[in-house]
Amino acid sequence: MNYPFIPARHYTPAHRGNVRVIVIHTMEEPLANGTARRVAEWFASEQSAIASAHFCVGPDEIISCVPVDAVAYGAPGANADGVHIEHAGYAHFTAAEWSTPLADAMLRRSAVLVADLCEQFDIPAEHIGSEGITANARGLCGHVDVSRAYGGTHWDPGSGWCWSKYLDLVRQAMPLSNDDRLAFANAAVLGGMKVDPTT
């Protein structure tokens, strides 16, 4: 899939082929249309901290910020071999808050992105946790898992993050063709209007 590209200010260009983990983050910004673009623009700005992610995902769009073969500054310990994905919302969200129509639209959009990444890098759609990270397993994890494995204070995406639902969505998207993946992402309905997964 092709996504709008707003290059982050801080990342290391590379040509790596050793990606083994997909790291899930929350932006600590509102779960709302426009948040992904606003955070991507912050990553690109002169005011940004020395931090970045490969993708910013919101209910309305995905923005690419760092090429997937480059190293983003997302979570120390999992930068060299990780793809980092920021999601609109907060680590303190409950399971109910990750089950709203806006959240469903974002999760479906993210699931299609992750299905593409799993296919590209031969990564299983499994939550490996901190134990898997330290055992050099391949799969998905949260920033909190990286913190537990290597030290750190980040605890996103939080205890309310819907790992089971999210992984089910990724697995549903994986066997689909590109056109069907777009339709899958477009299945979320917001206020009677379907979101456009190509933006």
Topology:
Blueprint: E1 11-12, E2 21-26, H1 35-44, E3 55-57, E4 62-64, E5 71-72, E6 82-87, H2 101-121, H3 129-134, E7 139-142, H4 143-150, H5 163-173, H6 178-185, E8 189-190, E9 193-194
Parallel strand pairs: 2-6, 2-7, 3-6
Antiparallel strand pairs: 1-5, 3-4, 8-9
Helix pairs in contact: 2-5, 2-6
3D architecture notes:
The protein is an alpha/beta fold and 199 residues long. It has one domain: Lysozyme-like (3-Layer(aba) Sandwich), CATH 3.40.80.10. Helix content is 32%, strand content 15%. It contains six helices and nine strands; from the N terminus they run E-E-H-E-E-E-E-H-H-E-H-H-H-E-E. The strands form three sheets. It has a five-stranded mixed β-sheet with strand order 4-3-6-2-7. A hairpin with a 4-residue loop joins strand 3 (55-57) and strand 4 (62-64). Helix 2 (101-121) packs across helix 5. The longest helix is centred in the middle third of the chain and has 21 residues, at 101-121.
Task: Tell me the CATH superfamily.
Answer: Peptidoglycan recognition protein-like
How many helices? 6
Topology-level CATH name: Lysozyme-like
Mean pLDDT: 93
- Overall number of structural domains: 1
Secondary structure category: alpha/beta
Q: What does the overall shape look like?
A: globular
CATH class: Alpha Beta
Uncertain segments of ≥5 residues (pLDDT<50)?
Answer: 189-199
Which CATH-level-2 architecture? 3-Layer(aba) Sandwich
Beta-strand level of the residues, as a percent range? 15-25%
Strand order of the largest sheet: 4-3-6-2-7
Please give the largest β-sheet.
5 strands, mixed
Helix content: 25-40%
Distance between the termini: 10 Å
